[in-house]
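Quick one: structure for this chain?
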Amino acid sequence: MSFREPHLLWLLCLLIIPILLYLLPIPRRRLATSALFLWERFFQSERFGRTSERFRRALGFACMAAVLICLCLAAADLAVGTSSIKARRLIVLVDASASMNAIVDGESNLSRAKAAAAKLIGSLDADTKVAVMEATNELGVLLPFGSPGREAIRSVMAIEPFDGPGELSRALGEAHRLWGTENDVQVYTFTDRRPDRTSWGERLRAWIAPKAGDNPAIVNLSARRVGREIVARFALANYGRSPRMLAGSILANGIQRDSFEGVTLDPGGVAVRTTRFEEANATALQIKLDVGSGEDAIQVDDEARAVIPSLDDMRVRVVWPRKSGHNAYVRAVLSSLREQGIGEPSSQAVEAGGSRVAVFVNHQPAEWPEGGAIVICPFKSGLIEAEGVLGKSVVVTRQASHPLMEGVDLRGLSVKEVVRARVPEWAQPLAWAGDQPLMWAGECGKCKVLFLGIPPGLFASRLPLTPSFPALMRNALLWMLPSTEAMRPGEYTSGWTSRRAGFIENKIDGKVYAFSLLDSAESDLRREDGEGEDPVSGRHSLATFLIAAAILLMGIEWALFHKRMTE
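Got it. Here's what it folds into:
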């Protein structure tokens, strides 16, 4: 026998209460009345301390003491037997990925896994230290190593469903990095697929959930704005044992804008569909799959969501100084990027108002706009301190490794009339001619700024004719403009994420984000049936039996007390 919560044995001190109640006499108050006068002699002959009365009092005391002892032993979790797991420390790792939400015979595999994990913890020896962890898209430590008691079981049962893709192998690798070098640590994982070979080797044991049924799903979604039109492309899949006919609807801000039907897919088949509709406002796009009366093991992958910025938020305005002509190369690049769903060119103007991003050609703004500013070859100082124009030709000698420079290679480019400008503290140089910075970028308050000291004309360089110029403009606009948001649960934004799928409001910034599963590995439940080991070993708790015995003894004690008081 052993106790899982030995620190609760101090409750046995409560036995002092029934002992005192038994030892201290309870005097009876006598009240003489005329109605009882004739019975006075009889009362004197029937003394309070007769043998039967003393026996009932002793039996009542014994019952009360036994009740307290049973309850104390149940609180300390008295158990018999020994556990088959001999590790000094055990990591209980529950896979909480979206596939564990699959319903089998009316119960989710996650619920089964939690029940099996709780049963395992309940069977461990008291001297085994257990830690409770979950595997979502990262390793989550819910309870550090401690006694295998009720707190550990509560931590397991408190695991909530997670609607995103899981990273069980990554979680096992992270756990091995932290504790795997200690030979007294083992891992027991509860999942719906057998883990790949890991560094844990023989120290890894697994409980495998039962096989789930057929599951149609939406496994991919991409959406973009091209002017007033929204173009969405999504993929449907049938992860079942027989052909399936699928249908569904497309909603924008809760209003149906399109639908699809009669999509027949063979087992394992995937079909891609495209929808188009006009909407100038910010759009909460929702693709809903109608599975009909067929089997559907996971419901979370029947919907896909995205939040698409409004047309006004995508506007890009080219601003030039008064008495100056426009730059055809900049306009041409912006027009081509529009067809890719990046930006919405506005009419040229002498002010930057009315757009989220402004491109300033040959001058700079009086103040930084909220959003983004691309400043190309400003001739006068202002927010950017221009130091003049280089009178000789220079060659770009090196460039930084930076996301804005992806697909951009300016090295070897010969340039004339380069505008020299001091690099602010908040900016990072991106390209140099020798030691002279030609381009830099950074964030100043709420504005993202890209400075290009190379004139955008053929008189200065061949930059407008190279693939690097549109690539640079594309990278800059993707950095500055709001993008279509289609996230998976577990992905962070502004230090926040969601465990569940849906349109979820971020309490930090007040914005609504779209979360969807969109993961074929989680939606595809075609795998081997459960082959896991039974986590229950030879150690069994007597808490239930002790509580039942306490209730029975309380009934006996009450009967004795009631009989004594009513005689």
